């Protein structure tokens, strides 16, 4: 497989075939798409107050700009006087000459609160005669400073790559948009399934399973006392099984933001290695053990609090459904094995093959 590059088009070519053209998204278009949602950064000030920076697309450039150098590349700043005055007490508007104004601005940008400086890429005033940004397309941005008693704005002009670097850095994050769910969605089933755990077996071990076998769990969400932690949207629910009531009690719930995305890494194959077919016996089989689905609508889910009782729709522990690579194939019973949760198979599609006699 080889890659061919043409202006504006990326493509992948398979030996003996035609290239598959891939549409290329440039940094400018990607940056504008990211700005469809405003981004904000919360900055802790020395007096304990919190300042909020909000960046969005668009400003009116009506005066000469000041070139800044930042970690994200060159930036042009416009209308920055009031914001510098509020943050540092330095009034650049009363400077006697343009060089004096630039000198005051250089001092004021260096005197910004550390958290604000970090969010803006540690800006420093560049050479007064430096040209405007022309190496690549730029975006006009509005930067707003929100303090407990005042709101101030200034303009920024950044390259697309610089803006993307800023948005990907701490403490910037998209501004959450509150969306009220339509009333009809509240009656929808929340479809929250309870998975006890998983076990990964080689194909040979999987083919040898039969009714009565006990399978150890490679990963388990429950302990032998019937407690589990269930991630639901932005929260984690700590559940406890109440056998007398045939339901789960929500013991506690905490806010848990989604984990940061980690890119998968693939090892490069040895080009000199001889070609060989995939051995099916080496393909792992993932057994999953499901208790069932909670009897819960979207509206009821929003009302869940510590002490709430949640019931299963299909069955009650210790019965579980056994899935192989996502396909239901049998059932089992939760058991304790050496102090840990395991599953004994109670229904299986195939009997154990007879033992070979010498």
Automatic annotation (TrEMBL):
Tell me the GO BP annotations in alphabetical order. Answer: bacterial-type flagellum-dependent swarming motility; positive chemotaxis; protein secretion by the type III secretion system
Q: Name one GO cellular component term.
A: bacterial-type flagellum basal body
Q: What is this protein called?
A: YscQ/HrcQ family type III secretion apparatus protein
- The species is Trinickia dabaoshanensis
Which PANTHER family does its entry note? FLAGELLAR MOTOR SWITCH PROTEIN FLIM, YOP PROTEINS TRANSLOCATION PROTEIN Q
- Alphabetized SUPFAM superfamilies for the sequence: Surface presentation of antigens (SPOA)
A GO molecular function term, named singly, is: cytoskeletal motor activity
Which InterPro entries does UniProt cross-reference here?
FliN-like_C, FliN_T3SS_HrcQb, SpoA-like_sf, T3SS_SpaO/YscQ/SpaO
Name the protein family: Belongs to the FliN/MopA/SpaO family.
Residue ranges annotated for the Flagellar motor switch protein FliN-like C-terminal domain, each copy included: 282-348
Mind giving the lineage of the organism this protein is from? Bacteria, Pseudomonadati, Pseudomonadota, Betaproteobacteria, Burkholderiales
């Amino acid at each position: 497989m080889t890659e061919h590059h043409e202006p504006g088009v990326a493509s992948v070519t398979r030996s003996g075939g035609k290239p598959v053209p891939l549409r290329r998204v440039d940094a400018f278009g990607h940056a504008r798409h990211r700005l469809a949602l405003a981004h904000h950064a919360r900055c802790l000030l020395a007096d304990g107050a919190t300042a909020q920076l909000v960046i969005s697309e668009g400003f009116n450039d009506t005066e000469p700009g000041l070139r800044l150098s930042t970690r994200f590349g060159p930036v042009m700043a416009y209308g920055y006087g009031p914001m510098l005055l509020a943050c540092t007490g330095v009034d650049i508007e009363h400077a006697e000459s343009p060089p004096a104004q630039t000198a005051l601005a250089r001092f004021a940008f260096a005197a910004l609160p550390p958290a604000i400086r970090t969010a803006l890429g540690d800006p420093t005033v560049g050479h007064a005669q430096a040209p405007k940004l022309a190496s690549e397309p730029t975006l006009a941005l509005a930067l707003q400073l929100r303090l407990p008693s005042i709101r101030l704005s200034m303009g920024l002009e950044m390259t697309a790559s610089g803006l993307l670097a800023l948005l990907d850095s701490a403490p910037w994050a998209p501004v959450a948009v509150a969306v009220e769910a339509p009333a009809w969605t509240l009656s929808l089933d929340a479809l929250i399934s309870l998975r006890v755990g998983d076990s990964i077996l080689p194909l040979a071990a999987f083919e040898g399973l039969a009714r009565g076998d006990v399978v150890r769990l490679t990963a388990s969400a429950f302990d032998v006392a019937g407690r589990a932690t269930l991630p639901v949207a932005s929260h984690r629910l700590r559940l406890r099984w109440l056998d007398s009531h045939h339901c789960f009690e929500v013991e506690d719930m905490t806010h848990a933001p989604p984990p940061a995305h980690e890119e998968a890494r693939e090892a490069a194959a040895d080009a000199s290695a001889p070609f060989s077919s995939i051995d099916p016996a080496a393909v792992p089989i993932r057994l999953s053990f499901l208790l069932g689905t909670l009897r819960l609508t979207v509206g009821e889910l929003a009302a869940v609090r510590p002490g709430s009782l949640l019931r299963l729709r299909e069955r009650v522990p210790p019965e579980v459904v056994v899935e192989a690579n996502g396909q239901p194939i049998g059932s089992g019973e939760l058991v304790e094995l050496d102090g840990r949760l395991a599953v004994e198979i109670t229904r299986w599609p195939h009997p154990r093959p007879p033992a070979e006699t010498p």
